[in-house]
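Annex B. Sample input.
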Amino acid sequence: MWFQVTDPADPADVAVVLAALREATPRCGRTAVVAVDGPSGSGKTVLAKGLVDALHCQVVHMDELYPGWDGLAAAVPLLVGQVLEPLARGESATYRVWDWAAGARGDPRTVDPTPYLVVEGCGSSVGPASSFAAVRVWVEAPKEERMRRGIARDGEVFRPHWEGWAGQEDALFTADRTRDRADVVVSTEGR
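Annex B, continued. Sample output.
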């Protein structure tokens, strides 16, 4: 899977998010959601793993919700309707994981109401998803560095997908003003 992480999160980045979380109020029922958002290759997954390890909580990866390479905007309503709204009602949430190889929905995954949930990925704090997040984190790095990281991880064959995805990110984040509404901004430049 794309979100297998071997690099450790910067402890200072984890600490600043946890400090914001201590001051935050849950906005998804009794679950305090930490939405780790930002463009691809910025380091969201690494930071999310550090948060999950510190909070001992579940994580929802947006990569499991996007319906393919053209599905960034379509994933936000899926996150809200299938995950955040049920949790806000105190119910377990179930969604079907996107199988990237098959190009279709695959196995179901259940997320139970817990004190904390990390939602990681592009769009995790966009639009209506934002209203459920106790803490909205924006992770950023320069565009060239993000592209280098992505191609190093996924391979040169994915460059056209990355370029198309970057256009979707620009449109979504600009219209939403996602970075401007973040509670915490983390830069991973040069890491």
